[in-house]
Amino acid sequence: MYMLFCPCRSIDAPLPGGKDEGPLGKIVSGVIKNLSGKERLSEEDVNSAWRDAAGAAAAKHSRPICFKKATIFVNCDRSSWLYELTVHKKEILKKLSETLKGRKVKDLRFRIGEIKEGRREKTKI
Fold it and tell me: Is the pLDDT of residue 83 over 50?
């Protein structure tokens, strides 16, 4: 591997070719950002988009777990909610694609699973 480093040149000095990249940290972070591709979605972004797309009632009984290869995996607390979300899958996909503009969402996978109480909105009785 070839590294562009000269002991007689300051790290903050412009690189050959007239490009001023600044400190070495900026260079490394730029390289890492380019290697990783698009910016990753945060868990908050996906949860917010899910609430908007699925609706408040469905969001109380389901939770997106992960986003891999353009597929969002969603845990549902009951089989009735799994069925309901499966029936409305195309509509939810369309809304998610509109909300998460920079990312393609090609599929939703629903399964029965645990929904952590800490994140779940509590309702008053």
Answer: yes
